[in-house]
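Hi there,

I know you've been waiting on this one. I reran it after we fixed the sequence typo, so this is the corrected version. Both the input and the resulting structure follow.
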Amino acid sequence: MPKRSNSASRRSLTQKGTYRYVSSVLEDNSNEPQSTYGVQFVWKPSYYHMQGGGALWQDGGPPRSRHRGLRGLAEVALEEDLDEDEVTDLLEPEIQPADTDKQWRNLFVTCNGNTVRIYEAKHKESPSLLQFYEDSDTTEQFYCVAWTFNVTGNHEYWVCAAGRKGIIRVIDVQNFRLRSSLTGHGDAVNDLKVHPRDPALVISASKDESLRLWNLRTGATCAIFCGLRGHRGEVVHVDFSQDGSRFASCGIDNSVRIWDFYDNEDVVKGIKESHKVADLGVEDPHVYIDETGTRRKTKVPICQFPFFVTRKVHRHYVDCVMWVGELLLSKSVHNRMILWEPEQDRESLASPATEYTLLEEYVLDVCNVWFIRFAMDRHRRLVACGNDKGMVSVFDLRLTPSKPLCVINPKDKYRYSAQFVRQCAFSEDGSILLAVDDTSSVVQYERLD
């Protein structure tokens, strides 16, 4: 497919609902800057988040959504979000997303080299640096970051960061301290995601061909996903479904896999036991005392059988996958993102579903390098993806044909530059879009309303 002309890009920048370049921040001023691989905004907590993690699993786990298509569970979940008045009292003023005027503060986190930075994005201004953390090991290279918060106590916001060393650092950004370090992976961690209904649960995707589910309250592994039917290469990306009952993973084995919490009752049991350990305040996260006073040792279940597996959607490395209702949007290195629907039935636990239906393709200009990850807004309607030349394409999944709303560039809006955009992020209301690249730049765009 031919590339879109510069004049088309210029016209798209003037349309309502598209984005324009505002400002940028350089994180590394050295002659050989390190890449900024990860960026994420903090979003408002939902009703489920505020209930605490353990309550969700008492009845066997999160209820499964029956919503399908582009109008998935996001609309329902948003109705249950807390309003700004309730959010205001959660955090201390130093790092509080809701300020005294009841306006949500657009805080975001980035990772560059062995550093993690907390910023605030403001309209028509450059991002303001609020906090800076540096790993003691200068050889560390963080690849991913994720926001969550303490489900008990004062609901402090935490940031999780991981990368080359395979160690997940959990930072308490309100109290300015490292809370814990999670170890277990045998190689680098490429991605982190927080459970959409239990903020104590974080899943990590690793180069060691496994995924691990962690409970941040104890620092222990709840479950491991690998083995017989698991990935046969580096796991690059992971994403929870919006109801939290399953997650999708992808990697350099060209595959996309769906894992279901309901497939293995030991997984849900392991999550419940880990919360019980936290509630009892047991020092050893792998040992707890039951209701009868008996000392019991927790077991880490290993899930080897995904619900769904395919290597046919993409013919090369798959470096990003995200849920859109019950559909999946995934990307490889062949200049396009694909929206598709996985089969919902399978023969048995050992025989995963493999059939799928292709629905739409979204063409990207010059995007043939792996580890370029797209982002979606909170409603899962807008998608932003960078490319090899410093440009960002924004799509609206509700519109057909599948042409970008805009193609934007930070330096010269109508000509190619020379850096890889590694990841993008939307703010809470979608009015601000960020992109980070290999020159350590954090670029801010704003929506034209």
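Quick highlight: Residues 265-280 form the longest helix (16 residues).

Best,
R. S.
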